[in-house]
Design a protein that fits this description.
The protein is of the alpha+beta class. The protein has helices spanning 50-63, 94-100, and strands at 2-4, 7-9, 33-38, 72-79, 82-90, 105-111, 114-116.
Amino acid sequence: MGEALGYEIDAVEHSYTNEPVTRFAKVGTEYPNYTIVRSADDNENKKLTLHVTKILPSMFNCSSKDSSPDAYITIYLRDGEKKIKLGRIMSRQVKPFLRLFDGFDIEGSLSKGKELVGDYLYVLSE
């Protein structure tokens, strides 16, 4: 202990971990949702093309005008172990979304533990 200007000073040791800092926050998965699954062995037909990357944000912009959060379906992209949230769409946008990603591996979840497979992916559409 030391003293400076009449105050006692305690020596405090800090320990730091060497965990990498990322710019993404880890949050829970929102339901209902669709996940676009990408893997290293995807062929050229499953690559995200320029027109898809242009259309998807416009879908998110249209869906952000509705104020009811229960009406949203969250879209995720999973590439290996990484899963990121892309945005949210409305139920009326489900069919165009699934057509846009025809040929991609799409996983759907109605709630935790309730997966949507095959034609049941369309359950969330109007």
